Amino acid sequence: MFQYRIYPTKKQLHKLNKTLEECRWLYNHLLERRKLLYEQAGTSLSLYQQQDTFGQLKHERPSLLSVHSQVLQNVAVRVYLAFKAFFRRVRAHAKERGYPRFKGPDRYDSFTFPQSGFSITHDERVVISKVGAIKMVYHRPMPGKIKTLTIHRSATGKWYACFSVECEPLRLPQRAEQVGIDVGLKTFATLSTGKPWQRCSASTPSWTGERLSDGSIGRWSRGCMNALPGGGGTSPTSKVDRSSIALASLPLRI
Length: 254
Known about the structure:
Blueprint: E1 2-7, H1 10-41, H2 47-51, H3 54-60, H4 69-91, E2 110-113, E3 118-120, E4 125-128, E5 132-136, E6 145-153, E7 159-166, E8 181-183, E9 189-191, E10 196-197, H5 207-213, H6 242-253
Antiparallel strand pairs: 1-5, 1-7, 2-6, 3-4, 4-5, 6-7, 8-9, 9-10
């Protein structure tokens, strides 16, 4: 998997969020249809039976037309895999079986092009069907043939393009020397050569570490724009709690 940061424009950002919302609605609809049919008739729908209903759904909900057809098909695959994993846990008599859940506004954060609908331009932009050419930080080349593309929105509102690539495994050259590692308390680790690795400090000069350490994050009101020092501004996504964004951003600051 190769992951690259992307920087959509405001117009493209609106389209990406709209695509996520349409995929979330479809996921919940397909999940509900499976659940209701099993409760009423004791049977279930197959993956292909649900995908065959997309034509009618597009007439009933025209906004689905703004999403690439293969992205919609992948949503049905996700529902199918969720139930497949559930029944596997049931057969294994797992303590927590994990019945597939409906997705809330903040719980559906990616969509996938399984075969087509995307490309990379000569100026290192990723072209997404129904969205456009998005600026991408192409920091390393991808060996082999690109198979799929997943667009992911992180908890902090950042967007990433994740490519799966079919390529031959790269074998590293064999080396004669060997090194042992001992993880400790005073130092993060010590090599068998005697060289210590110091532990990274968990404290940062920013306000984030201070606020998280004193527990005040629990007192922030959900959606409050003045919860952070300085207040004001706009949230990366209107439906994401700013306190949750600060919590998710902490590992990036350390």
